[in-house]
Design a protein that fits this description.
mainly alpha; 5 helices; 2 strands
């Protein structure tokens, strides 16, 4: 069984954006002669992950070159070029059997800290890993499941929940 963590948080301790931004910043700190773009290349060489630019003015195919790019959110290319291949890599680690891959996903600040992932980006994450061949995930809400997350998760699970619709026996996610 392969159990990867598909966290994409920025800041925090284990999200992809947060982790890579910390490594780029550390690379700059350790070697002050490096430009940020060179630090991105070094981190990409170490991890095999080259993030697409989130700058709307950047040409297609340009990689992230500045720590400021992390603040612009996730570009569409991030899902295609990073998360779909990460899902496929997890399946390859499971000897090609998608049912042997059970990624952990989450959106909130707990316990990792960092910026919460919005419902739209969470949906894009789930769509990308599904496109990569992953069949199921474990969702960790850490007692702060939002109505938006519940609506989206219940929809992709087969029975869409809508507030006040009477589905799921009147269940309402807690507002923490």
């Amino acid at each position: 069984m392969v159990v990867p963590r598909f966290g994409i948080h920025h800041r925090g301790t284990d999200g992809l954006y947060g982790l890579l931004s910390k490594w780029v910043a550390a690379m700059n700190e350790w070697s002050s002669s490096l430009w940020e773009a060179e630090s991105f290349e070094a981190v990409g060489a170490l991890t095999g992950l080259h993030l697409p630019s989130s700058d709307p003015a950047a040409p297609a195919g340009q990689r992230m070159l500045s720590l400021r790019d992390f603040e612009r959110g996730y570009p569409e290319a991030f899902w295609r070029e990073v998360m779909v291949p990460e899902a496929r890599r997890a399946i390859a680690q499971a000897d090609g059997y998608p049912w042997r891959v059970l990624p952990s996903v989450g959106t909130g600040r707990r316990p990792q800290g960092g910026d919460p992932v919005g419902v739209a980006d969470f949906r894009r994450l789930l769509d990308a890993i599904k496109e990569g061949g992953v069949r199921q995930v474990v969702y960790h809400n850490y007692a702060h499941l939002t109505s938006g997350e519940w609506a989206m998760l219940s929809e992709i699970s087969g029975t869409a929940w809508r507030p006040g619709s009477g589905t799921q026996s009147g269940y309402e996610p807690p507002d923490l």
